[in-house]
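From the shared-data thread, chain only:
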Amino acid sequence: MSKVKSEREIKLIRASCELVVATFQMLDRLVEPGITTGEIDREIEKFIVGHGAWPAFKGYVVNRKAFPANSCISVESEVVHGIPGNRKLRAGEIVGIDVGVKLGDFYGDAAKSYAVGPIDALRTRLMQITRESLYKGIAQARAGNRLSDISHAVQSYVEAAGFSVVRELVGHGVGRRLHEEPQIPNFGPPRQGPKLKPGMVLAIEPMVNAGGYEVDGADDGWTVLTRDGMPSAHFEHTVLIVNGEAEILTKGI
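Structure, as tokens:
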């Protein structure tokens, strides 16, 4: 279970999260038709390193394999962990960008899905429901609640809207490591799991598919794809559990 952070640790995590927010505010002016995902990734690296920090995903190792880019950029049916490259964004697409920052010894993490130019009604609603489901989960991130109260709130909202939550991928704790305990699924019954305590820091991140929840891995070993080829959206905040409403440390993205 996520350990309760000290006031000093929370201050340092907060600083990392502030840089995550500033990075997204830069991206808000950058995402448009014609730009490549690689160009976006290079701007993310330049911005984070220019502020004395490190892109948290670069070199992140899973199964002895290091992630090759500074950010995860996932287009259309790519759910998460897309590797930036030569792909040009096209009007009508949606793209999810996941950014982590390591500032000193502590991490911040957030994700946001963008419309690339005008998009259709399905993609508009998918993004809206995904973002709203994030805040439904955050509303349950209160001291005294159980971990699965977050999960249940996300799933209930998404499925009532006719979409599906990805089952294989989860949110997580944040602190001295980018991914700490606990894992936070986006589905499940309420009132299960450990009790939330003030001082815990969690990354809550619904990944929502327009079609079925099933996903597959791409040949690159990183990118996760919807099995049915339908679009997917992703939003994430790092939050601090307090007495009362959670504090959103990445507020402003």
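Helices lie at 7-27, 37-50, 121-139, 147-160.
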